């Protein structure tokens, strides 16, 4: 009789012990999750602030494209000043141009929209300019790439 | 055990998610997007957006829609159909299976899919900051054994232990939280970029059974885009005579703006496509500007949407289920954001579809939840409950002031300082309420207690801190403490979160049903409180400094206040009637106060007069601030 009780107690003890372990594990897991999230939040915080304007700038670039297309047609000195002003404002926010003309095609920063006669894998024409926002590609340059066949 | 990621390995796009802090979260790709194109250039090892960008240049070596070839025989219908549209070479490999030849090498569909999974793994590792070894991958419900096997192999090639292959509709149902105990029939309507699937699931005790599945493997958002592009091109041709379909650059620009327009038309009823200088005609630039209405888009794609209905009918017939037995319809895939699609689904199934989860992410999120279940993450963390309804107390004018908002994860604690509603009020009653309605009487009373022994003070002066503390077991402790005397009273309410689903649902529905009525009632109380505050404060000023105003002004104000008070006490008062009287009194008080300050300024040095005007303004706004605190922060006696 005495033995039975102690056996029961041991069982209970083992069960409790495993329960504690389980809970401790869970606790650690949650804590780890939390700490990781905190760490990531800290990492992201500065980029978040820096990149907060990204979506707005991306939209403004469409207007910039339109202005540049107009300028290509009109070649108006006044419009040029407007475009330059626009460019300088955006560059203050961290925007910079992706050099693409006559460069080797690079899918990391360029988007090939058409293959045309010309030197193989070289950018023959930039259709719309690409931009970096700080060190990230905000928008790849849309380019025409040479096919290797020249005519 | 490390984290198990969930991967939605899609035909056109893929996504990755992971359990974090008890909820599934999408892991952004290295390009910062929530999904990435399932496109691979295996020679240079390019995957996703980067592979897509060089597709035009390198179409023969760029593989898209590889999922269509997974586990397929070369001679099979699916492989042959894919061969027709794919610019890359599909050939017969070992055991008659379809393989891809490019750059002088042979790739199995598994190897190509593995590249996509590798990117998913790498993105997850960058995000989590640890190595990832385990994954749950989703497949369409109709995938047969060899297709599932191929998917598993792809995972292994990518260096992942595939813990489980899960059906996409099952994952979606998990993401929608449909696994919680209910036994019901669920329809998953999945209209993605390139494929359409509909599945009927039977849910019982946490077990999902796919009863039937149907669909169209060549119908998706891309077809919708094409319709819109064709329309824009043909309209432009009608207008100008220029055929833009011959101009690749123009076509590219139209494609981009058509996709944008399609997305905008899900929220707006009209949008405009603007592409200046799209082409030239006789040396003159031509601009593309076109208004497109939602109705027009719906007309253009009408037959595409209708094409989804036949598979739905078949799926129901195969599952031998009546429409009336369907408990829930959930939407998956970006195209289901289109209002017309939602409407058609609703009309067919006779049920409002559930769209509470982002349709692009649902499958990946569900896969992550499955991963969490396997690793033990979910079982315990999901025990963290949320308060199903808002908890708060009754404040002046029988208004419910919330302290702990609905859906707050518990344990949680919140305090707020309140005050008295009348002068020398010796006690406050803390009436604890639960519910979503703005008026106290419409909510459920959980309990109440009285804090007495408040020293005599003018209204609004005593500071009574009310604290709500709800623990992980749903036990709510409410205490009120007079900050001046330190005297405290409290009450413990058990099972504050423990309401039956029906009860919660009813209370939420009531809140919605009576929203308009409640708003009016609350407005009336707010107006009354505002008027009350003005009366009390102005009377106080008149009592303290009435002589400074002059007898006429004081009389005028007193009369106006009496008038206002009569209206406040009147049963038939409306917001409008109160507002009219309140406006008269407020203007009167402001006018006299201003005159008072002006007179005072004239007496003083002229130099100071410039600072006087703002002061008068300051007083007026101060009265307003007080009103607000009375509205929100006072406990009724």
What features would you describe in this structure?
The complex is a heterodimer of chains A (151) and B (637). Chain A is α+β, with helices and mostly antiparallel strands. Helix content of chain A is 58%, strand content 21%. Chain A has three helices and six strands. Chain A has helices at residues 2-51, 54-74, 77-92; strands spanning 95-98, 110-116, 123-128, 130-133, 136-139, 141-146. Chain A has a three-stranded antiparallel sheet. Chain A starts with a helix and ends in a 5-residue tail after the last strand. Chain B is of the alpha+beta class and 637 residues long. Chain B folds into four domains: 4-220 and 302-385, Nucleotidyltransferase, domain 5 (2-Layer Sandwich); 221-301, ATPase, substrate binding domain, subdomain 4 (Actin, Chain A, domain 4, Alpha-Beta Complex); 389-492, Sandwich (Substrate Binding Domain Of DNAk, Chain A, domain 1); 509-597, Substrate Binding Domain Of Dnak, Chain:A, Domain 2, CATH 1.20.1270. Chain B is 42% helix and 25% strand. In chain B, 43% of the residues are buried. Chain A binds chain B through residues 22, 26, 29-30, 33-34, 36-37, 39-40, 66, 69-70, 72-73, 105, 107-108, 110-115, 121, 127, 136-137, 140, 142, 144-145, and chain B through 20-22, 31-32, 46, 50-57, 127-129, 248-249, 252, 274, 276-277, 285, 377, 380-381. Chain B: Belongs to the heat shock protein 70 family. Chain B: Residues 598-637 are annotated as: Disordered. Chain B: It comes from Candidatus Collierbacteria bacterium GW2011_GWB2_44_22. Chain B: Acts as a chaperone.
């Amino acid at each position: 009789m005495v033995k039975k009780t102690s056996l029961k107690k041991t069982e209970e003890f083992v069960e409790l012990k495993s329960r504690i372990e389980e809970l401790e594990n869970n606790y650690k897991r949650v804590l780890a999750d939390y700490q990781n999230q905190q760490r990531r939040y800290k990492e992201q915080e500065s980029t978040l602030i820096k990149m907060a304007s990204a979506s707005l700038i991306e939209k403004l670039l469409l207007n910039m494209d339109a202005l540049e297309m107009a300028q290509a047609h009109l070649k108006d000195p006044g419009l040029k000043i407007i475009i330059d002003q626009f460019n300088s404002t955006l560059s203050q926010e961290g925007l910079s141009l992706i050099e693409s003309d006559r460069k080797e095609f690079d899918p990391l920063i360029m988007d090939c929209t058409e293959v045309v006669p010309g030197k193989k894998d070289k950018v023959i024409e930039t259709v719309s300019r690409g931009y970096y926002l700080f060190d990230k590609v905000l928008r790849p340059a849309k380019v025409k790439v040479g096919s290797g066949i020249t005519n | 055990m490390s984290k198990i990621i969930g991967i939605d390995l899609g035909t056109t796009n893929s996504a990755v998610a992971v359990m974090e802090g008890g909820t599934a979260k999408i892991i952004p790709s290295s390009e910062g997007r929530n999904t990435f194109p399932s496109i691979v250039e295996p020679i240079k090892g390019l995957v996703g957006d980067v592979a897509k960008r060089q597709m035009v240049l390198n179409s023969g070596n760029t593989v898209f829609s590889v999922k269509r070839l997974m586990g397929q025989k070369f001679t099979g219908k699916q492989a042959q159909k894919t061969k027709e549209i794919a610019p890359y070479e599909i050939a017969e490999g070992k055991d008659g299976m379809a393989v891809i030849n490019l750059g002088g090498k042979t790739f199995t569909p598994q190897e190509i899919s593995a590249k996509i999974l590798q990117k998913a793994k790498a993105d997850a590792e960058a995000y989590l900051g640890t190595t990832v070894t385990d994954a749950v991958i989703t497949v369409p419900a109709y995938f047969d054994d060899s297709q599932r096997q191929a998917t598993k192999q792809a995972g292994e090639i990518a260096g992942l232990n595939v813990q489980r292959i899960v059906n996409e509709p099952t994952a979606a149902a998990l993401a929608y939280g449909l696994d919680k105990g209910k036994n019901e029939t669920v329809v998953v309507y999945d209209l993605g970029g390139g494929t359409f699937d509909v599945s009927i699931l039977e849910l019982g005790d946490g077990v999902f059974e796919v009863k039937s599945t149907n669909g169209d493997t060549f119908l998706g958002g891309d077809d919708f885009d094409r319709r819109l592009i064709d329309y824009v091109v043909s309209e432009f041709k009608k207008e100008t005579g220029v055929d833009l379909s011959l101009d690749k650059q123009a076509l590219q620009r139209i494609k981009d703006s058509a996709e944008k327009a399609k997305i905008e038309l899900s929220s707006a009823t009209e949008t405009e496509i603007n592409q200046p200088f799209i082409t030239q005609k006789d040396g003159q630039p031509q601009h593309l500007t076109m208004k497109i209405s939602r109705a027009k888009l719906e007309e253009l794609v009408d037959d595409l949407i209708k094409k989804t209905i036949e598979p739905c009918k078949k799926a129901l017939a195969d599952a031998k289920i009546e429409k009336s037995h369907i408990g829930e319809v959930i939407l998956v895939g970006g195209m289901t954001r289109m209002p017309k699609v939602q409407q058609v689904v609703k009309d067919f199934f006779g049920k409002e579809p559930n769209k509470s989860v982002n349709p692009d992410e649902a499958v990946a999120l569900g896969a992550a939840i499955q991963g969490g279940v396997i690793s033990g993450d979910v079982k315990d963390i999901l025990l963290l409950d949320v308060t199903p309804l808002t908890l708060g107390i009754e404040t002046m004018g029988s208004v419910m002031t919330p302290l702990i908002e609905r859906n707050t994860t518990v344990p949680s604690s919140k305090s707020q300082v309140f005050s008295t509603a009348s002068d020398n009020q010796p006690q406050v009653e803390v009436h604890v309420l639960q519910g979503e309605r703005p008026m106290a009487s419409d909510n459920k009373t959980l309990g109440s207690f009285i804090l007495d022994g408040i020293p005599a003070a003018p209204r609004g002066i005593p500071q009574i801190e009310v604290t709500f503390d709800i623990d992980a077991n749903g036990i709510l402790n409410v205490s009120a403490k007079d900050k001046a005397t330190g005297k405290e009273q409290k009450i413990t309410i058990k099972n504050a979160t423990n309401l039956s689903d029906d009860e919660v649902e009813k209370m939420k529905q009531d809140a919605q049903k009576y929203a308009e009525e409640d708003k009016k009632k609350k407005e009336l109380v707010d107006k009354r409180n505002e008027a009350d505050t003005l009366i009390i404060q102005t009377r106080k000023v008149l009592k303290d400094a009435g002589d400074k105003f002059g007898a006429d002004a004081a009389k005028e104000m007193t009369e106006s206040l009496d008038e206002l008070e009569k209206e406040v006490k009147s049963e038939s008062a409306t917001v409008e009637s109160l507002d009219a009287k309140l406006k008269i009194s407020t203007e009167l008080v402001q006018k006299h106060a201003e005159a008072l300050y002006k007179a005072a300024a004239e007496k003083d040095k002229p130099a100071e007069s410039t600072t006087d005007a703002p002061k008068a303004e300051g007083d007026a706004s101060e009265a307003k601030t007080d009103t607000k605190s009375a509205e929100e922060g006072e406990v009724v006696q």
